[in-house]
TrEMBL record:
<keyword id="KW-0808">Transferase</keyword>
<keyword id="KW-0489">Methyltransferase</keyword>
<dbReference type="InterPro" id="IPR029063">
    <property type="entry name" value="SAM-dependent_MTases_sf"/>
</dbReference>
<dbReference type="GO" id="GO:0032259">
    <property type="term" value="P:methylation"/>
</dbReference>
<dbReference type="Pfam" id="PF13649">
    <property type="entry name" value="Methyltransf_25"/>
</dbReference>
<protein>
    <submittedName>
        <fullName>Class I SAM-dependent methyltransferase</fullName>
    </submittedName>
</protein>
<feature type="domain" description="Methyltransferase">
    <location>
        <begin position="47"/>
        <end position="138"/>
    </location>
</feature>
<dbReference type="InterPro" id="IPR051052">
    <property type="entry name" value="Diverse_substrate_MTase"/>
</dbReference>
<dbReference type="GO" id="GO:0008168">
    <property type="term" value="F:methyltransferase activity"/>
</dbReference>
<dbReference type="InterPro" id="IPR041698">
    <property type="entry name" value="Methyltransf_25"/>
</dbReference>
Length: 281
């Protein structure tokens, strides 16, 4: 959990509706890569902790008998249910809970995944609990965008989103320290998941990078949705100034691309896995 920060229920308040449009997808083929790495065969159960609108769970559900998504945000779970119906995923179910509420009577799992969510938790406590919830040989999975990828030599066909200018605008409205719910992240979010997970008793670390690099078109509305999908610029943080902020945000985007079209490269996806020792129950 970030230093000096306490979780509260407003962390992603109002953001669920913007996820599908605003967030870039994980690298194509990430689900198949993970299934191959873990030897998945359609059996066992998946637990996605901090599942949000079901982005990872819905892609992985076909490799399991059942997939369970846990998230404390009711709007995220409602969006996940809508996406499951739209995609015809019938073996998923959802539970409103924090990671610290586990095991929450959910039973045993073959795989537990954290997709850009582990840093929000009491990591040592949660990792120890996950170890107990996994079947022998089961996998703890941490995944997210690859940080600090090599520079791409080919220029983009359209302007890139002006992320620095967007960050400056958010700071002007919300202050210089990153917001997170009702608190602030003075020192950012923690990393070195490997140390935490191995300290809990997991072993057999493996690292996988799923390449992407495809160039995708993004509209002004896509970038606005990205801003509001984030915890540090969730809609509720702006209060009565929300309309003013969005008006200025759109002006920044209009200045960066007069035709309101941008281009981005999909980031590679980084997947880290560890195993529960076979001798443990």
């Amino acid at each position: 959990m970030p230093d000096g920060w306490q979780w509260d229920s407003t962390l992603f308040q109002g953001s669920a509706a913007y996820y599908e449009r605003g967030r870039l997808p994980y690298a194509p083929g990430f689900a198949e890569t993970l299934a191959t790495a873990l030897g998945l065969d359609g059996r066992g159960r998946l637990l996605d902790v901090g599942c949000g609108p079901g982005t990872v769970l819905l892609a992985m559900a076909r490799f399991f008998t059942e997939a369970v998504g846990v998230d404390p945000d009711e709007d995220m779970l409602a969006e996940a249910q809508r996406q499951a119906r739209r995609r015809g995923v019938t073996n998923a179910r959802w539970a409103a809970a924090r990671a610290e509420d586990l095991p929450a009577g959910l039973g045993e799992f073959r795989v537990v995944v954290f997709a850009q969510s582990f840093h929000w938790t009491d990591r040592d406590r949660v990792a120890a609990t996950v170890l107990e919830m996994l079947e022998p040989g089961g996998a703890f999975v941490h995944m997210g965008d690859l940080k600090n990828p090599p520079a791409e030599p080919t220029p983009l066909p359209l302007p890139a989103p002006p992320y620095e200018e967007i960050s400056d605008l958010v700071r002007r409205y919300l202050g210089p320290v990153r917001r997170a719910g009702q608190g602030k992240l003075v020192n950012g979010t923690p990393n070195r998941e490997d140390l935490v997970v191995e300290r809990a008793g997991f072993e057999n670390f493996q690292h996988h990078v799923v390449p992407a690099g495809e160039v995708v078109d993004r509209t002004t509305d896509d970038i606005v949705a990205w801003v509001f999908s984030r915890s540090d610029s969730a809609p509720h943080l702006f209060g009565e100034r929300l309309e003013d902020f969005e008006r200025e945000l759109r002006a920044v985007l209009q200045q960066a691309a007069s035709e309101n079209r941008f281009a981005e490269r999909l980031p590679a996806t980084e997947i880290m896995t560890w195993r529960k020792p076979h001798g443990e129950r």
